[in-house]
Amino acid sequence: MIVGCQAGRANRHGLTPGFKVKAVNLGGWLVTEGGIVPSLFDGIPNKDLLDGTQIRLKSVTIGKYVCAENGGGTILVANRTSAASWEAFKLWRINKNTFNFRVFSNHFAGVVQDSKGSPAVVAEAKTPAASEIFRIVRKSDDKNRVRIQASNGLYLQAKTEDSVTADYAGDAGWGDDNPSVFVMSIVNTLLGEFQVTNGYGPEKAPRVMRNHWKTFIVEDDFRFISHNGLNAVRIPVGWWIASGPNPPKPFVGGSLQALDNAFTWAQKYGIRVIVDLHAAPGAQNRFDPSASRDGTVEWGKSNATVQQTVSVIDFLSSRYAKFPNLLAVELLNEPLAPVVTVETLKKYYQAGYNAVRKHSSSAYVIMSNRIEGPMNPRELFPLAGRLQLNVIDVHYYSLFEDKYNGLNVHQNIDFIYNNRSSELGYVTNSNGGPLIFVGEWTAEWLVNGATKEDYQKFAKAQLQVYRRATFGWAYWTYKSVKNHWNLRWMIQNGYITL
Questions:
Q1: In a domain, 251, yes or no
Q2: Residue 114 sits in which domain range?
Q3: Distance of alpha carbon 153 from its chain centroid, rounded?
Q4: How distant, in Å, are the alpha carbons of 136, 229, 259, 355, 389 from that of 323?
Q5: Residue 76 in 3-state DSSP?
Q6: Which SUPFAM superfamilies does the record match to this protein (predicted)?
Q7: Shared-domain flag, residues 352 and 433
Q8: How many domains would you assign to the chain?
Q9: Domain with 199 in it: what CATH number?
């Protein structure tokens, strides 16, 4: 028997009177997120140099940082006394030792012959080829001390502040007198699906990922969820799930069977399912769960990425509309403003809505608000308000923004009861507007030394406020190595009562 929305007579929104979604996200399962399951990366050689890792290089002879002049499009120089965005290189991993270096302007560093016939290093290529391949050689007892071998077999050297070339042939050790030695610092990393699958490579990645899908979430988890007061799960998926057993590299096929299992287990235990497209083609935000290669947001910049995403929604809706416990399809998770424009988003959401409605008249269609950037929290209302069984998803964290720094326990809790309550009230329209879903929240914060009682009060405050959301809420996440993000741990240890 399926409990909740199908029982009784539905109201004008399709919800049974009194029913609210009380859900948990199954994060880190079918879309990798390294902060949730860091051990998934343990077997990758040079696992600190994955796709999207940002590095800085400082010449030991000159004592200054290397950068692409003007951010890209011309030569590399070694004349920066401090490092900022232009002085970082994003890695595209070819194997454990060889990489492409992407610069601020999204050009790639490579080797060309200058006017004197010398191999100069420039950042001019829009797409990497053979001349844009570099091998990072690390000092055995100090991995931050590196030499970089170019495709011509020679090493990069900082000859002068204005001349970085690929013509150093000697060894000459690792001392500060060697112009081919650089100090490498890692300033940012990504730990998503692209990084884990490309990191392991085509031979090992399928085994690692399929084992993860089989073991991270199992049938007993749905029993636990059902027996602890929850009535739904929100399951993040990636666009490659619709690509069959052999999706575009480096992604791995097999997550579709895991999602099939989830529907079967959920139905057995009376749990409704929200299928959430967490990673779209080209990436809709710069974070790990978008499966971006290097944090660049390409989704929506071309109509092709949008149409491909609509096709994914069509596939998922067609496949799962036959399951009576399909509660909703979420069209996209956390599109990033202003890179993703509201105009592009509205066009996609209308097309995605139509794709769901081709296969189901009863499934809800969830539209995520944009994150960051300048935006109006009600910017989707004109579209969503005229559609049936439509929901707007908002995410609330007491993290990630400077305004939470330094708040003590009582200030954080007051913020939930006052500011957050007002934010939720602003997007909740009782006069026929779209339903509101707090699709992600967690009982973690930036308070050091908080007691168990403090966490209990913080969780209780959020539950009291978020239960006012007209569609319901979903905790992030069900399992995690970080205890307070881990709802199963929080329940088992008495930190939260649902």
A1: yes
A2: 53-188
A3: 36
A4: 50, 22, 12, 17, 18
A5: strand
A6: (Trans)glycosidases, Actin-crosslinking proteins
A7: yes
A8: 2
A9: 3.20.20.80
